[in-house]
Design a protein that fits this description.
CATH architecture of the largest domain: 3-Layer(aba) Sandwich
CATH topology of the largest domain: Rossmann fold
Number of domains: 3
Structural class: alpha/beta
Mean pLDDT: 88
CATH class of the largest domain: Alpha Beta
Strand content: 15-25%
Bound molecules: zinc ion
Largest sheet: 7 strands, parallel
Distance between the termini: 36 Å
Shape: globular
Number of helices: 13
Strand order of the largest sheet: 10-11-9-12-13-8-14
C-alpha cells in the first residue's frame, strides 16, 4: 500500500504527465481575448471544454499561443488505459459506451464520473501560462485565543508552511485543530500562495467552509464536494474532498490534509496521487488527525516525520472515558425490530436536555433503531452515507429539533454538536476499529460549558479495539495532566 511515507518524497511516484508551468514573470506575446478571466479561471486546474468560460474558437487561440495545453483525458500506456484527470489506472474502473464521437465503444473513466464523464475522445485543458496570483495582507480576522497546545501546533504549522516541509499534527478530538491552522493559512495567503484544505469527508468540508469563510472574509474561497454548486474558480483558499481535489493540477503551495487517516483516503493510492498532483512539487504538507495509523506513528518515532502532539482539548478538560456496557445479542434484537433493553433504559434515564448520537454498525441498523426510539417518544432521526437529507438532519440535530441522531460511522469525524452524549450500539462489530471508536468518543464533551459528556459502548462481548480505545484515551488524559511544554 502506498502510504504517506512515499507521498511527496518517495521514489515510487511515476513521472507527472502534466506540463510544467512557466514562471510568473512571463507575459503572453500575443494579445488574447479576455486574458485575465481565462488565466484566473484555468490556473492550476484540469478542465473540460464545457467548463471553460469561452467557446472552442477562443480555446483554440489559447492553445496555439501556448497558454493552454490540450491532452486527451484518457490515454493508453502500453496495454493499460490511464485517466489523466483522476490518475485512474485500474482496468476495472474503465467502461465503454456508444459515444457522441461516433465510436460504438469509446472508453470512459468510471472513477471520476462524479465530475462529469470523460472519454478517450474528450480533450482536457491545462493552463501553461503564468499562474494567476493574489496577495492578501493580514487576511485573518479572528479574535479568539489559542490554548498553549494549540499555540505550539500553530507555530510549527506556520514554519512548515514557510519552509515547505511536511508536518503531522496529532491532536486529540476537540483540541481545536482548525484554529491551529489559521496562522499557517494566513501567512501563505499573505505570501501570495494558494492553499488547499482537503479532507476525505463531505460533511467535514461542509462544516469547515463557513468557519473559514468567516475568518478569511476578504479571500476568495471555495468548497468542492460531490454535488456542490459550481465553486469560484479564482479561489485562493480551496476546501475540497480528496475526490474533488482532482479538479486541480499543480495549483497549491500549502496543503492541509485533515483527517488524513480516514477512509477512503488512506486505502486509496489513487486519491493520494490526486492530492499530490493538485499541489506544486515543493508544496508544504500538513497532516491533521487524532488517530494516526501505525506507519505514521513509526515514522514520527523514527524522526522521519516531524510532528506536534496536542493531548489537551482546547477547553483544558480531559476526554470522556468510554464506559462499556453489555447489551446481549444486539444483532438478534435488531433483526426483530427491537433494541437491547440496556440501551433503552440508558436512553430513558439520561438527561434528555443534551443531544445524543447513537452510532450503529450498518445502514440496515439505522431504520429499526430510529423506529424503536420514536415509539419510545424521542424525537429521533437517522443518517447514513447515501441519505440525501443528511445535511438537513444534521442541522436539525444541531438546532435541537431532534433529541437523538442515529448514524453510521459517516459522522465519526469532523462534525461537532456541542454538549452531545454518545452511544455506540454494537461496539463489538468489526467496523468499530480503535481509531473509529476514539473518533466517535471524541464527539462528546466538546463544549466548555459541558466538558464531561457520556460515552457508552453497548456490546455483546468486549473486543480488543474497545479495550485499546479506553487505554488510548486514558493515556492522552494522563499526558494532558503533565506540564504542557
Ligand atoms: Zn478519471
Ligand atoms: Zn468518444
Amino acid at each position: 500500500m502506498n502510504m504517506l511515507s512515499t507521498w511527496f518524497t518517495g521514489s515510487s511516484q511515476s513521472a507527472s504527465p502534466f506540463p510544467s508551468f512557466s514562471s510568473d514573470a512571463e507575459i503572453p506575446a500575443i494579445p488574447l481575448p479576455d486574458y485575465t478571466k481565462m488565466q484566473v479561471h484555468c490556473s492550476g486546474r484540469a478542465l473540460l471544454a464545457q467548463e471553460m468560460p469561452h467557446d472552442q474558437k477562443i480555446i483554440k487561440a489559447y492553445v496555439q499561443a501556448g497558454m493552454l495545453q490540450e491532452v486527451p483525458a484518457i490515454t493508453k500506456q502500453g496495454t493499460l488505459w490511464r485517466c489523466l484527470r483522476c490518475s485512474n489506472k485500474n482496468p476495472g474502473l474503465f467502461g465503454v459506451h456508444a459515444c457522441a464521437c461516433g465510436r460504438e465503444r469509446c472508453v470512459y473513466c468510471r472513477e471520476c464520473l462524479e465530475m462529469g464523464r470523460v472519454s478517450a475522445c474528450t480533450p482536457l485543458y491545462y493552463w501553461t501560462g503564468p499562474k494567476a496570483s493574489g496577495v492578501f495582507t493580514d487576511p485573518l480576522v479572528w479574535s479568539g485565543r489559542l490554548s498553549s497546545g494549540q499555540e505550539r501546533a500553530s507555530r510549527a504549522a506556520a514554519a512548515a508552511g514557510l519552509r515547505k516541509e511536511e508536518l503531522y499534527i496529532w491532536a486529540v478530538c476537540g483540541a481545536g485543530k482548525t484554529e491551529m491552522m489559521f496562522q499557517a493559512v494566513a501567512e501563505a495567503l499573505a505570501r501570495g500562495e494558494r492553499v488547499l484544505w482537503t479532507t476525505p469527508r463531505t460533511d467535514v468540508v461542509r462544516e469547515l467552509y463557513p468557519r473559514l469563510a468567516e475568518v478569511f472574509p476578504g479571500v476568495p474561497a471555495a468548497a468542492w464536494y460531490a454535488a456542490s454548486p459550481e465553486a469560484r474558480p479564482e479561489a485562493r483558499l480551496v476546501l475540497a474532498t480528496a475526490h474533488q481535489a482532482r479538479r486541480f493540477k499543480g495549483a497549491f503551495d500549502v496543503v492541509i490534509i485533515d483527517e488524513v487517516d480516514a477512509f477512503p483516503y488512506v486505502f486509496d493510492p489513487g486519491l493520494q496521487q490526486a492530492v499530490r498532483e493538485a499541489c506544486s512539487p515543493h508544496a508544504a504538507v500538513i497532516y491533521l488527525s487524532a488517530t494516526p495509523g501505525g506507519k505514521e506513528q513509526q515514522r514520527m518515532k523514527s524522526g522521519a516525520l516531524s510532528y506536534v502532539r496536542v493531548p489537551r482539548r482546547f477547553h483544558g478538560h480531559p476526554l470522556p472515558v468510554p464506559e462499556c456496557r453489555w447489551a446481549g445479542n444486539w444483532r438478534l434484537q435488531l433483526s426483530r425490530g427491537r433494541l437491547p433493553p440496556a440501551l433503552l433504559q440508558w436512553c430513558r434515564s439520561r438527561d434528555t436536555a443534551y443531544p445524543l448520537f447513537v452510532f450503529v454498525p450498518s445502514v440496515a441498523a439505522v431504520r429499526p433503531a430510529v423506529e424503536v426510539l420514536r415509539t419510545e417518544g424521542f424525537r429521533c432521526d437517522g443518517v447514513h452515507a447515501e441519505d440525501e437529507k443528511r445535511e438537513e438532519k444534521i442541522t436539525a440535530f444541531r438546532e435541537e429539533q431532534i433529541d437523538i441522531l442515529v448514524t453510521t460511522t459517516i459522522l465519526e469525524r469532523g462534525v461537532t454538536v456541542p454538549k452531545a452524549d454518545v452511544a455506540v450500539l454494537g461496539a463489538d462489530d468489526d467496523i468499530f476499529t480503535e481509531s473509529a471508536l476514539v473518533q466517535i468518543a471524541g464527539r462528546a464533551g466538546r463544549n466548555p460549558e459541558r466538558p464531561e459528556g457520556d460515552v457508552v459502548f453497548f456490546h455483546y462481548g468486549r473486543t480488543k479495539a474497545m479495550q485499546q480505545t479506553v487505554r488510548h484515551i486514558q493515556t492522552m488524559n494522563r499526558e494532558e495532566a503533565a506540564p504542557d511544554e
